[in-house]
Specification:
The protein is an alpha/beta fold. It is built from four helices and three strands; from the N terminus they run αβαβαβα. Helix content is 50%, strand content 13%.
Length: 82
């Protein structure tokens, strides 16, 4: 089995290098470097301890909240990159 260390972060870095803006969502510790690297990161259905340790990320508890968070991040990024 081939495993790549921190592969989610590396994918986001590659997309950003190609001038894409990346909005990422993840649920736990293994996603935090990806979320930090992305143009915008969102915690989706995370356990409370992850929310407590990573307060810099907005939290979505359901799909409707996730859609709102993505739309908000996209709007913010659009205004930032004009």
């Amino acid at each position: 089995e081939i495993r790549y260390e921190d592969h989610k972060r590396k994918i986001v870095e590659s997309l950003i290098e190609m001038n894409f803006h990346v909005i990422a969502a993840g649920d736990s510790y293994n996603d935090t470097t990806m979320l930090s690297t992305a143009s915008a990161g969102i915690l989706f259905r995370p356990p409370d301890n992850v929310v407590d340790e990573f307060p810099q990320f907005p939290v979505a508890r359901n799909y409707a909240e996730l859609a709102e968070a993505i739309e908000s991040a996209a709007k913010d990024l659009g205004e930032h990159w004009k």
